[in-house]
Amino acid sequence: MKYHQYTIPRDVYDRHYLQGTGPETDWGDLEVMYDYWKLGCPHPVYYGFIYKPVLELYEHDVFKEVITADFVLTEANGIYNYGYTETADTAGCKRRPQSWLLMLQQQFTVDPYTAWTRENYISCHSPEQGAERYDPSQTYEVLSNNTANGIKFSQYNGIYVFNITVLDPDYSFCQLETQFAVEVFGAFPKSELPALRIMMITCGLGLIALISLYVIDIFFWRDGEEEQVETRRDSFPY
């Protein structure tokens, strides 16, 4: 089998790659043809695990080293229902960190393949005179083999096709890029009922169960009392 077709729900992807912030937000479910010959089998990842890909550098078919430079990834079909474990504060940033949304919004024509590369990367650990203030809780989206930052998936089972770009301009004169896929599994389907309604229904059912037990207990207790009274009457000597 060369291809596998799967569906991406309308509420987890943005075909303009703007993470649902653009003027158009509802374009229906997306049908995708997964190319096994190009991508191979997707790597299985449990949705509750923190995930961080390890990049290996090859020259032709010869392994050279594990890449330790900074890199970023984005989902090829515009899926954006995943996050990162680090923030600007926990990552030790000294200036506002770059992000996919910020870099894409600076483009005249949105193109995730050129929005964030080694040509325009600025590390947030580089000090800047008169740097603008930023929110320390802002998500830090740069990954590296030398940091703790990783990907955290939401309660969603499905295939993610990631494009990876190495950002560090000092690591290579070449633009190092690759593409791979993961298949997230293990997430329970989301309930269609709001949490408050579920709690109220659960409490209501619990109350009904308690009342039922009380009624049953009273019924058997009274029935037992009546039997005892009848027994006493039958055995009373007249």
TrEMBL record:
InterPro entries assigned: CATSPERD/E (IPR028751), CATSPERD/E_C (IPR053814)
Membrane topology: Single-pass type I membrane protein
Major localisation: membrane
A GO BP annotation: flagellated sperm motility
GO cellular component terms attached to this protein's record: CatSper complex; sperm principal piece
Keywords, alphabetical: Cell membrane, Cell projection, Cilium, Disulfide bond, Flagellum, Glycoprotein, Membrane, Signal, Transmembrane, Transmembrane helix
Transmembrane intervals: 198-221
Superkingdom: Eukaryota
Chain ranges of the CATSPERD/E C-terminal domain: 5-216
PANTHER family: CATION CHANNEL SPERM-ASSOCIATED AUXILIARY SUBUNIT DELTA (PTHR33722:SF1), CATION CHANNEL SPERM-ASSOCIATED PROTEIN SUBUNIT DELTA-RELATED (PTHR33722)
Similarity comment: family membership: Belongs to the CATSPERD family.
Protein name as it appears in the record: Putative cation channel sperm-associated protein subunit delta-like
The organism of origin for this protein: Stichopus japonicus (Sea cucumber)
Top-level taxonomy: Eukaryota, Metazoa, Echinodermata, Eleutherozoa, Echinozoa
